[in-house]
């Protein structure tokens, strides 16, 4: 068998990979990951692995780290997620890791926009009042003229900016590497005090874990809105609760630490904090969006072409 052919894919995903062109199908033998992959004789022949959607370890009786390390001819790992913090440390230097970045840009951007508007228009308060059968009007804010600071400026942030601009907002951008129109992270302390809305969309790395800490929150403009659509661990939860309780900031969070957020956790009742349970990509077409990227990369890999969304460095 040609050593470039064997692809192991997550259980239940074969049908998602049926629609490949003839030349790619001729070069790829795609099978589901066996029930006991570490004992399977073909493990050494695997060249592409599409692992289950997991965070730390598969729930299928094997350790994903051991599986990847034991696949001696592995060339490519294709994740089914946009964020790869759950798997990036498991990938050997000689193996390429790809994400499905871009698959959910508009879904995430729509949710972040909805969260911003919900907070600005006091929707959580009015929804709670309706549930109690009470008429309790509260003054709302206008989005136009607000100064928005993006912390992390990838494809989701760019999509959200496109949605926000028609409202008449002013935008500044910060990223790990400065480029035209985007300031470096060293400018964060200068830009935070002037922002009305701070949207955090960084990947989770050693450098961004705990980025939203007490100092970050102290620098924010009093009453400003923090939006976290990145990962829960990007924020120091205790610092965020403390800032909310003293009225320093408001927040919209689609991610939390811990996650899922336990019943009775202080973050649920922190004043001015609106939470959705990580629903950015929770739509019926979620699967197809992800596998459209996966199929594109399988075709490119089979043809020896450039892959999409290669994860490199701190990504």
TrEMBL record:
Q: Name one Pfam family in it.
A: 2-Hacid_dh_C
Q: Which residues form the D-isomer specific 2-hydroxyacid dehydrogenase NAD-binding domain?
A: 114-280
Oxidoreductase as UniProt keyword: yes
Q: Which UniProt keywords apply?
A: NAD, Oxidoreductase
Q: Which GO terms describe its molecular function?
A: NAD binding; oxidoreductase activity
Q: What is this protein called?
A: Dihydrofolate reductase
Name its species: Actinocrinis puniceicyclus
């Amino acid at each position: 068998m040609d050593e470039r052919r064997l692809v192991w894919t997550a259980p239940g995903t074969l049908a998602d990979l049926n629609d490949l062109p003839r030349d790619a199908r001729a070069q790829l033998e795609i099978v589901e990951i066996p029930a006991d992959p570490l004992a399977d004789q073909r493990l050494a022949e695997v060249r592409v692995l599409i692992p289950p959607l997991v965070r730390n370890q598969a729930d299928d009786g094997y350790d994903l780290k051991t599986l990847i390390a034991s696949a001696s001819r592995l060339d490519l790992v294709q994740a089914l997620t946009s964020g790869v913090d759950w798997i990036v440390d498991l990938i050997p230097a000689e193996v390429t890791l790809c994400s499905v970045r871009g698959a959910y840009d508009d879904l995430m951007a729509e949710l972040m926009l909805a969260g911003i508007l919900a907070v600005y228009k006091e929707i959580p308060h009015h929804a709670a009042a309706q549930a109690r059968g009470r008429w309790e009007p509260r003054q709302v804010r206008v989005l136009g003229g607000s100064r928005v600071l993006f912390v992390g400026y990838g494809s989701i942030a760019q999509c959200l900016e496109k949605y926000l601009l028609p409202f008449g907002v002013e935008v500044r951008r910060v990223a790990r590497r400065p480029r035209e129109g985007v300031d470096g992270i060293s400018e964060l302390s200068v830009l935070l005090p002037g922002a009305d809305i701070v949207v955090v969309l960084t990947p989770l790395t050693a450098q961004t874990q705990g980025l939203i800490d007490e100092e970050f929150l102290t620098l924010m403009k009093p009453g400003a809105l923090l939006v976290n659509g990145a990962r829960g661990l990007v924020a120091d939860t205790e610092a965020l609760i403390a800032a909310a309780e003293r009225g320093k900031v408001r927040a919209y969070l689609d991610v939390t630490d811990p996650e899922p957020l336990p019943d009775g956790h202080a973050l649920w009742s922190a004043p001015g904090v609106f939470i959705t349970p990580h629903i950015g990509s929770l739509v019926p077409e979620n699967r197809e969006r992800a596998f459209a990227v996966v199929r594109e990369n399988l075709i490119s890999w089979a043809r020896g072409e450039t892959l999409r969304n290669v994860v490199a460095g701190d990504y």
